[in-house]
Every structure is written in structure tokens, then in C-alpha cells.
Amino acid sequence: MISMCHFENNWLTVMRYSHKRNVIRGVLILFFAVFMSGAVFSAEGTIRIGLLHDDPEPFSLVISVIEESLSSMHPEMEVELVNLGSMNQARALSQLASGQANFDIFFSGYSSEREKKLVQFDLPLTMGLLGIRVPVVRASQVEELLERVEQKGIRSLTVGSGIGWPDSKILIENNFNVMLAGYDSLWKMLQYGRVDAFARGIEEAYVEVNQRKDWPDPPVILPGYLIVYPLDYFLYTTAEKLPAISVLIDSITAALESGRVFEVLSNHKTSAEALAYLQSCECVVEELYNKSLTQRILSIDDSYWLDIARRSLEKNKKAGLPKSDSSVEKLKTSP
Known about the structure:
Oligomer: single chain
Order of helices and strands: EHEHEHEHEEHEHEHEHEEEHHHEHHE
Helix content: 25-40%
Distance between the termini: 31 Å
């Protein structure tokens, strides 16, 4: 059943009260353990970040958050993007965990498995924006797919998602029909009609759709529909690499608490477009349950999340959502 819901408050507003959490306590403990074992720490140097897809543009928002946070507190530090080419997420994380990686840190969507295997920093880099997904479809199919979804629901679409992505597990567990493939292959599958839609984070979608606007049948965002679940980019590393990146964690923590991260989201071209879309649309919101959430994620300070992401987390805290929980939400902002 579809119900009308209206947010009276600005759902994009970052909650300014902050019960300051010592999010780097665990980092410091591990840091001193590594330091006492003989590792050398330098206050100046380069932080190497592994980057997938041989293309930094889809990740430009996350890179901007990292660079802006670091430059505000430690301008002496530099960020180096290490191109991992066609390597998938699982392989990159495996190399990092085994000590074979030629990078210090990797950002990716959260999963409980990654939390267990690596050192995870509980800092949502886009304040939950990654978990606000849109179906990207072929322009020629928009009317047909809108009619189908209006009659049968968003789960009637065959959705493409990546191998080893946390999103894929979430979609499958919430009864979506999912086809798995590598990132580049997923775009080809959409182009040739093997899937109806490619589920993308709303900010990612604005970048990627623009990159493919010259296709004969270009991809577009299916208007009026959102798929929302608690998810964001988190940073992962190993204990051995902590001395090299502890200043970055300190910087991002300060940027989240000061509102600097929200400023980056508001001013970055594609995330600003995404936020504007969310403010103006009257969308059917399909809210999903993320079974991978642990108490660590549920305990992250409320001020670190956009309000829509915080609401999704709150619903997940209440023992999850039913298999179908659609609502039409008028996403309003304060004057």
C-alpha cells in the first residue's frame, strides 16, 4: 500500500548537535601498537588511495571529501591515487588485507565482512548519500518501465549490480531480481537490454549518465523512484598502515563534526545536482533493510548522516523493514 508522507523539517539539514564520539580511540590503540613494534611514522608524506575502474571521475565526490578534509588540517600531506585498473572491489580488499597492496587505504561501500577483516573507520564519507539509489535505464525504455513499475512495483525490474558489491547482497536479500557482472560489463548489459536498470548511487548516476550521453540510446535516471537503504563509503586499511593515514582519519572526523563534509556535498557539482533533485522531486521511495549492519554502524553519531540516511538507519534499528515498504515522499526544504 502506498501512503503519502511529508517531511516537515529539512531532511537534508545536518543535525548540528553533536555528542562528540572518540572515533579514533581504536586507531590510536592500534597506532601505538604498531609504533612500539618498530614502525616509522612520518608527519609529512603521501597517502596512497586505491582507485578502481581506471577513472577517478565517478569517485570525484569522495576524493574531494578526503582532499578537502586533509588540506584543512594537514596541508603538508598529499594524496596519491593508485590506479587499480579493472580490478574488482573484492580483489582490491583482499590484496590490502594480505599486505600485497601498493596503496595505504581503500574506500568502498560498507559490509560487515569488510568490518571484520580490515581496520574500518566509522566515518560515512558522503553522509549516507551512497545508499540513496536510482534506477538508471535506457532513454527509449522510460515510458514502458514507468508503466510497469506503476503496475507491478520497482521489484519487477531486472537490475544489474556488481560482483562482490554490498549493494548486490542488499538487493538480493530484499527480493530484487539481480544480475551480477563487473562494472564495465554492467553498462554493456544495460546498453544491449540484458537488464532493465542499473541501480546507482544518485550522485554516481549524475556523473555516469553524463559520461554516456552520446550513446545511441543514452542512459537516464528513471524519474520519480528512489531505492533507499543505509550504506555509505567507508575507509579500510590494515594495522600496519595506520601510522601513514592516522592524520587523515583525524581530519575527516573534524570535517564531519564541523559541517565541512556537508559543505563539500553542497558545493560539489554532481552531489549538488543530486541534492537538488531530491529536494524537488515527489518520489516513490522503496526503503530496504540492510542485514549487514552491525552495532558499530548503528552507533555512529547522528550528526554524521544526512537526515534521510538517519531515518533509514532508525527504521533498520527497529528490527528491519517488511519486504515491501513503499511510500511517496514530498522531499521539502526549509525556506
